[in-house]
Amino acid sequence: MEKLDLLVWDDVPLVVEVPGLRSVTTSVAADLEKPTILMGLGSSLRALVELWVDSYDIWRDVVEQVPGDLYLVTSSQPQARADVSGLLTHLSWFPKPDRLSEEEFFHGWHEVHTPTTGALHPLRQGYTRDAVARTLTPGSPAVRAIVSEYFATEDYLDPARLFGSSEALNASIEELPLYADYADVSSCPLYAKEL
Q1: Could you tell me the CA-to-CA distances from 29 to 58, 111, 134, 187, 192 in Å, in that order?
Q2: Which residue from 126, 141, 151 is spatially nearest to 70, judged by alpha carbons?
Q3: For 21-68, what is each residue's pLDDT tens digit?
């Protein structure tokens, strides 16, 4: 089984029906009046569609039904989540900086940053970390990481509840160059809906 992440940029129907489809999770733009964190291309993203399929070979059928940028990913959950319904998803995506080797990138992202995110977001209710193995749609931006973090809306909207201590925030800022360049990080809030 394989996972596909589809970044959708237009307001289009998000229903996907393809052979070998096991499950779909769709997260749509929250369009909050004052989003706590909005970076890069975040204000343009309309949805994230996550598909578990028997084979990625059906990718053309996916983008024919819902146009967007499609990525084959390896997925892990450093912090498991039971049900995303009703939670707000903070989505982040970014490329691997050219200055970093694959080993340096994954060391900084997985081994240095991931363990400290619990202190950064103590009220977070889940964390899914997708590493892009292959870009499937020609011309799509180079993306190496797609991260979903799940929060109760009231926790996300209040910076005092969203973030832990100032020490945890400063540590996160110091860790960023180990896996990403600030100018290339995009993020936005979405509402997750299990379909």
Answers
A1: 25, 30, 25, 11, 9
A2: 141
A3: 999 999 999 988 888 889 999 999 999 999 999 999 999 999 999 999
Q: Give the Cα separation of 53 and 58 in Å (integer).
A: 8
Q: Answer left, alpha or beta for residue 180, where phi above 0 means left and psi between -120 and 50 means alpha.
A: beta
Contact (Cβ atoms closer than 8 angstroms) between residue 36 and residue 157: yes
Domain 2-194 falls in which CATH fold? Alpha-Beta Plaits (3.30.70)
The dihedral formed by the CA atoms of 27, 30, 35 and 38, expressed in degrees to the nearest 10: 50
What backbone phi and psi angles, to 5 degrees, belong to 29? -55, 130
- Whether the per-residue pLDDT at 171 is higher than 60: the answer is yes
Indicate the domain borders of the chain: 2-194
